[in-house]
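Render this sequence as a predicted structure.
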Amino acid sequence: MRRGLLLAWLACWICLAGCAARAEIPLIDTSAACPFDEGTPLFEAFFLNLGLGNDGFLLRCGGETLLIDGGEAGCERAVEALLAEQGLERLDMMLNTHGDADHIDGAVRLLRDGYGVSVFLSPYRPDAAPSTYDPLFPLLEEAGAAFVTVGHGDILALGDARVFVYRDDDQTHGANARSLVLKVKYGERVLLLMADASGVGQRRLLEMLEPEDLRADVFKVAHHGITPSVPNFLNVVRPLAAVVTNGRDYVAETVRQLEYRAIDDYYTAEGTVYMATDGASWWICQS
């Protein structure tokens, strides 16, 4: 009997010691220096400072690259500066979440400036794309890039990361609501990118998906934070950190909403937000 109690106590002590060790490693690290050892395989995301109300993100994992949107005309300069800094002369994939000018025009001009891409991903069929796509198609043909339509339920591979595609499939809803929402999973860590899917789009996703499909450590707030997130959507996602593609002074309701829930908030107008994960924890910094 005593031996059984001793073994149970020992097992409990080992468990508590392991939990204490894990607790020493924060899920989100915001220290000045990168906490990952050199050579550690990482998933990386760059949320570019493209001014007020422009989406443009570079994702990288396992040597593969994915550019999501590219902001409005003129934003391509900031994208090109980042690509040059990272030593990238071409991209494996570009993805447009929807055809609004502040999401597609910068990407079009990036191609016009001679940057190559292997695959362009879009929620539209070529024969049903909005007029903002008109200059895109000849540039893709010139670059020898494939045009691929993606939709709800598709899963993309980016190195060892997986990108799950969600989309409001109700054709009566507007373009913002039906923009592509992307959940990126690497190891145990999850990033949720909301494009412009606020309001109707978020409520539709709550109807279409299970709560575990939407839970994420970090999420990019929908529609540049212009309107706050649907409260129940935030309750389901339960993020620890949020990125807003705007200036703090322009999205007061979103600021209050995030602060009320004690969600760490980053605003791209204050500088490019960089985050990396080894699959167990995140490192987030801003410059």
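Summary. Residues 1-23 have pLDDT under 50 and may be disordered. The longest helix spans residues 2-23.
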